[in-house]
Design goal:
The protein contains 22 helices and 18 strands. By secondary structure, the protein is α/β, with parallel strands linked by helices. Strands 2-1-3-4-6-5 form a six-stranded parallel beta sheet, sandwiched between helices. The protein is globular, with a radius of gyration of 25 Å. It starts with 16 loop residues before the first helix and ends in a 26-residue tail after the last strand.
């Protein structure tokens, strides 16, 4: 048998439907693709392998979706996600639910059985579903399909435009296997140009005028800034408006970093505190920007505003969905900029003193609960993390602390799964954030229960050399659920977990790991974050949540599936 000559020119490859997909993505400006191959999607992945697009392949489709989610959040653009038919496609649903709740522009592209099998059950194809796209319609922003090769470029462009129209969101596009594999006719030129016009809703001038007049006339104006402010890049406009009005600003958990934490007008993010809820309720005019005032942002629906509410929201379905308001359907940056130009400037007055008084009351309540360990651990994380580094948090006790107490210091640097609440978000999301900017370290924070969802991605981190440090707080189970059940029923069931030696397991993947302790955590994290490539820091500790205060007494926090939040 002759040996191939490596210097010989490669045979000219016949373009296929898969090439049309890849060419379309490149024409729209894609740079990185996440995913996991499968039988029906091989034509798509074959074309990807011949392209200049960077591929980041994860080990579980749901984790690939979380990585794409964080990439989309960090870049503000579209993150392509490629998976196969049936089980591969369905495995992305939890991640896409998070992207929908967090308004992350993920373009999920899945294969389908051959055209002859569409409709289900007639041919018994592997992975066949009667109506695969129906599984996605209640989760994603829009569903698209291409049944012929001629439809592919337009279908990709339509899906891209939908994902990037404000509010951003995930979309689903499926293409049959035979369409992806079939040769493209010799007279069909490569896709070079695709034009999309994502929609950005602008506020109506008469509504801006009315809102500005109400805010200017208010004696106690307050602003609640949500995730929509972060997504719109509206931090400067928010600050300008707040300073012109002398209005205190609280941020929702999704809006962290939108307003400087230590600004004299900053109420920070203590939304699970009755003192903060009272302060917001006492505003004679409350401007809610980029939030639907959902479960978490309303202190579990105990918020009862006594004054007028003005709501700026890019998603029309969230306008006045929880509270009557003067509703402005608009992108947060455009609306806040318009309001800042219209309101009458005035001195801060006693607003900074009122803010300081509130934060002092919150601090006294927290300090009275004997939670020094928890505060020290969170402070160690903050001290170790560079100001501009990204952190991704799982649904874990330390993550819940971070929602309220962590100073994000920069907008769009703190991400969590608090939109849909699925476990296992932090580590794969951190990989996606690192892929978006490999020059900066990224921190992932999980409990041992959530970490078990993502252990396979240690191989991904090692394979691509991504600079992610994974902090695993090991308390032997689902810690927050343990607290909920013990409080509600006097005992916990199903919350105690056998788990591996996380440090040894990481080492078996070739990922450096250390087992830390609270007094060493800051130094161990700082060293791990400064080192190249992935690393793991394990902290054996049993943390407790601070006691929430609600109108009707303590109420259950979200477990692993809270309501959609911004």
């Amino acid at each position: 048998m002759s040996t191939p000559d490596p210097s010989a020119p490669a045979a000219r490859h016949t373009r296929t439907g898969g090439d049309l997909v890849i060419e379309s993505l490149q024409a729209l400006g894609a740079h990185t693709v996440f995913g996991l191959p499968g039988q029906h999607a091989l034509g798509l992945f074959d074309a990807l392998g011949r392209s200049s697009l960077r591929y980041v392949g994860l080990r579980v489709e749901n984790n690939a979706g979380f990585a794409a989610d964080a990439y989309a959040r960090r870049t503000g653009g579209v993150a392509p996600l490629m998976v196969s038919t049936g089980p591969g496609a369905l495995m992305t649903l939890a991640a896409l639910q998070e992207s929908a709740a967090a308004s992350a522009a993920v373009l999920a592209i899945g294969s389908q059985v051959p055209v002859a099998g569409l409709g289900g059950g007639r041919h018994g194809y592997l992975h066949e579903l009667p109506d695969q796209s129906a599984s996605f319609r209640g989760v994603v922003k829009s569903v698209h399909s291409a049944r012929t090769q001629a439809q592919i470029p337009s279908a990709v462009a339509a899906a891209w435009e939908s994902a990037l129209s404000v509010p951003h969101g995930p979309v689903w596009l499926e293409i049959p296997q035979d369409v992806l594999l079939a040769p493209v006719g010799p007279d069909v030129p490569p896709v070079r140009t695709l034009t999309v016009q994502p929609r950005v809703p602008a506020p109506r001038p008469e509504l801006l005028d009315a809102a500005a007049e109400a805010l200017s006339a208010a004696e106690r104006p307050v602003i609640l800034a949500g995730g929509g402010v972060v997504r719109a890049g509206a931090g400067p406009e928010l600050r300008a408006l707040a300073e012109r009005l002398g209005a205190p600003v609280a941020t929702t958990f999704g809006g962290k970093g939108a307003f400087p934490w230590n600004h004299p007008l900053s109420l920070q993010s203590w939304l699970e505190d009755r003192h903060t809820t009272d302060f917001l309720e006492d505003a004679d005019v409350l401007l809610v920007a980029g939030s639907g005032l959902g479960e978490l942002s309303s202190n579990y629906h105990t918020f009862r505003p006594r004054g007028r509410v003005i709501q700026v929201e890019a998603d029309p379905g969230k306008l006045e969905s929880n509270h009557p308001a003067l509703g402005l359907h608009a992108d947060a940056r455009l609306a806040l900029d318009g309001l800042a130009a219209r309101v009458r400037e005035r001195p801060y007055g006693d607003a900074p003193a009122a803010v300081a008084g509130l934060l002092a009351r919150v601090r006294r309540r927290i300090d009275g609960q004997g939670l020094t360990l928890e505060q020290d651990v969170l402070a160690a994380v903050r001290d170790a993390l560079p100001d501009d580094a990204v952190s991704c948090w799982d649904m874990t006790i330390l993550g819940y602390w971070a929602w309220s107490a962590f100073d994000a210091r920069r907008p769009d640097t703190m991400h969590s799964a608090q939109g849909a609440g699925g476990l296992g978000y932090a580590f794969p999301a951190a990989l996606g954030a690192a892929a978006a900017d490999p020059a900066r370290p990224v921190l992932a924070v999980s409990g041992d229960g959530g970490a078990m969802y993502s252990l396979a991605e240690l191989a991904t981190a090692r394979q691509y050399g991504l600079p992610v440090t994974w902090l695993i707080v090991d308390d032997g189970g689902y810690g927050i659920l343990r607290e909920y059940m013990a409080d509600a029923f006097g005992r916990a069931t199903g919350t105690e977990l056998a788990r591996p030696d996380f440090a040894a397991l990481a080492g078996s993947f070739g990922v450096p790991a250390v087992t830390s302790a609270p007094e060493r955590l800051r130094d161990d994290l700082a060293a791990a974050l400064a080192a190249p490539g992935p690393s793991v820091v394990v902290l054996p500790a049993r943390l407790r949540m601070f006691a929430p205060t609600h109108l009707d007494g303590p109420a259950a926090r979200p477990g692993d599936s809270p309501a959609s939040e911004s």
